[in-house]
Backbone:
């Protein structure tokens, strides 16, 4: 089993945050591994996807890679038709997006101004994976999680469950 | 019967939390104008100077309105409109 050198910022959120923001992303190890694998595969283009779960639960259960319709090293956009199919599947199953992840391929794992201005899922945890250090190869990768609400970025702790 | 417009979470502040609102009109724009009257500010988050906003996807009965006339996409009683903000970034 390859050892993935995972840099996870453990960051306690203490200041005032919205009522339903818990300040922590609970995520399964296999989902963290899946995001990193996707980011490495698509490097140098940004990779993107979601982890969905039962509506209102804040528990992520189903991992879904999404196509980056922009296929760009600096932008990502879910293919609209694929996003619509995802929306219909989630509506039928009583699910919602819990995690939106995407990768930064030459910058840090922190939301860009574009990320913040386009964040449209207020209930979601926004996970950034940076492949700037090691690119497509095994090696250090940075994974950090944030809430983005009304233009405000709040980093949160990541609690990885094995 | 009228046209049902499903509202994404981020725009529910304009509908008092409602996940769907109803409106009347023969085109998407007419329906949005009708809904705007009861939910002020909502249309402006979907439309920008007479065109649909770039990062908002709108579907009328499963069809992306980009391919069926945009704001002039025809709507009829019983139709379902879905507003889906794009997931995008950089």
Residues:
């Amino acid at each position: 089993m390859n050892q993935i050198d995972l840099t996870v910022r453990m960051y306690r959120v203490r200041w005032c945050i919205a009522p339903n923001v818990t300040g922590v992303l609970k995520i399964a190890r296999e989902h963290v591994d899946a995001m990193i694998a996707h980011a490495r595969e698509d490097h140098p283009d940004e990779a993107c996807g979601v982890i969905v779960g039962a509506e209102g639960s804040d528990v992520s259960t189903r991992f879904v890679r999404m196509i980056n319709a922009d296929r760009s090293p600096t932008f990502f956009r879910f293919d609209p038709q694929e996003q619509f199919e995802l929306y219909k599947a989630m509506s039928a199953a009583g699910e919602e997006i819990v995690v939106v992840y995407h990768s930064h391929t030459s910058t840090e794992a922190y939301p860009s101004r574009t990320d913040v201005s386009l964040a449209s899922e207020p209930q979601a945890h926004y996970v950034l994976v940076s492949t700037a250090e090691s690119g497509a190869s095994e090696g250090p990768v940075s994974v950090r999680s944030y809430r983005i609400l009304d233009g405000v970025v709040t980093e949160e702790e990541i609690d990885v469950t094995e | 019967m009228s046209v049902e417009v499903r509202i994404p979470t981020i725009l529910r502040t304009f509908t008092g939390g409602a996940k769907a609102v109803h409106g009347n009109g023969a085109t998407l724009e007419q329906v949005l104008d009708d809904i705007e009257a009861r939910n002020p500010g909502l249309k402006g988050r979907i439309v920008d100077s007479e065109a649909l906003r770039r990062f908002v996807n709108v579907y009328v009965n499963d069809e992306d309105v980009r391919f069926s006339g945009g704001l002039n996409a025809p709507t009829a009683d019983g139709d379902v409109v879905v507003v889906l903000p794009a997931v995008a970034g950089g």
